[in-house]
Amino acid sequence: MIKFNPDTDIQRLDHRLIYYCLLALFFFLPLATSPAVIASSLAIGIWLLSGSFVRDRHRWLHQNWTIPLAAFMILTIIGLLWTNNMTDGLEIVSKSRYWLLAFVVASSTINEKIFRQYATAFVAGLLILSAFSILTYSGVVSTAIKLPTIFSGKSITASLFLVLGILFLSFEYKLRSQLKHRLIIISLILILFFTLSICGGRIGHVAFILLSPWLIFNMLKDPGILKIALLSIISVALLMASPTVQDRASMAVKNVQDNDINSSIGIRLHMWEGGSKIFIRNPLFGVGTGGYPAAMEHYKKPGLTKENITPKHPHNSYIYIAASYGITGLMIFLWLIYTIIKNGWNRRTSIVGQSILGYSLIFCIGSLTDTLILSVSHAPLLALLTGIGTKENE
């Protein structure tokens, strides 16, 4: 859809190589972890080895997110000093390398045209994921075939990515005037919407419900409150009509009624309760990087199955930060999130700002039921959009 000429749009070789790595990263984020990790590692490696991190420091050194992001990364490292679990702590520190992607992107040549290339690659990956998922759901493709689908154990990640893809396409729809382009975009939105309706990630359904008025606003030529409200209700009703969505909602209610501690809801309530108690006992600096699992040993409850006795994290980014780093870490984390949202809001008239703002809200919603800050898919994406939210490069 968007022609791109690296020879004229990106002059420096290191920026061009980083561009191709990031393009691959956006494409593979919804599809496969390993290729995405390789692409991100290559981008960071090129940024370091080429000297771009020094040569382009004026682009990232004085951004409004530089201090909170650097503080968060440093806190993750020095949190090893008071952790009681060095093994898990080192694993978490190794994952913090994804935050370097914010500096990589900020150092590179970024404009709206290039951003739309990245976003298009992301949506392309989502459409391939959707195609495999729909074929599997319909029985055309056997579940025995190992394909990337929404049924492969990462339904939370997939559901949130699907909502982001739908939002991005609605932004693109708003910019298009030709009927054929709009019909294509509507068709793609319907594919992603159907995939979301058969996806088991409940938090993705919640995110769609909360953000549906924004989606409808983007799709209307002459938006009004009544129109937006009516069409939002219709879109939510269509989602709720899905047997998968109904089953997942009724399962959540049943889990609560049965008070089953090993259910999806029950174990989360247990982890949140324990994480909150850990924070209360260690309010200033928490239990350190990786210290949550060992600290949870004090709050074990009878009836827990073997795999649930020592959870790695509380499936909530806010509780994880509070338990691990106390009020200090929580304030830094909220400062960073606020900065990203602010950058998206300040550029809300552009597709770049809309996308940053949209994903920031999706990340905040998703972090209520999963520790997205540790996710090998969501943490890199948040870092990328942090860097893209910097002052525009001309």
Topology:
Elements: H1 6-9, H2 13-28, H3 33-49, H4 52-55, H5 57-60, H6 66-78, H7 86-95, H8 100-107, H9 112-137, H10 155-175, H11 179-197, H12 202-219, H13 225-240, H14 243-258, H15 264-281, H16 292-296, H17 317-346, H18 351-366, H19 378-388
How would you characterize the overall build of this protein?
The chain has one domain. It has helices at residues 6-9, 13-28, 33-49, 52-55, 57-60, 66-78, 86-95, 100-107, 112-137, 155-175, 179-197, 202-219, 225-240, 243-258, 264-281, 292-296, 317-346, 351-366, 378-388. Helix 3 (33-49) packs across helix 8 and helix 10 (155-175) runs antiparallel to helix 11. The mean pLDDT is 90. By secondary structure, the chain is an all-alpha fold. It is globular and about 60 Å long. The longest helix is centred in the last third of the chain and has 30 residues, at 317-346.
The tally of helices reads: 19
Number of domains: 1
Large-scale geometry? globular
Bin the helical content. Answer: 55-70%
- Tell me the total number of β-strands: 0
How large is the share of residues in beta strands? Answer: under 5%
Element-by-element helix/strand order: HHHHHHHHHHHHHHHHHHH
Largest sheet: none
Average pLDDT confidence is 90
Task: Give the termini separation.
Answer: 22 Å
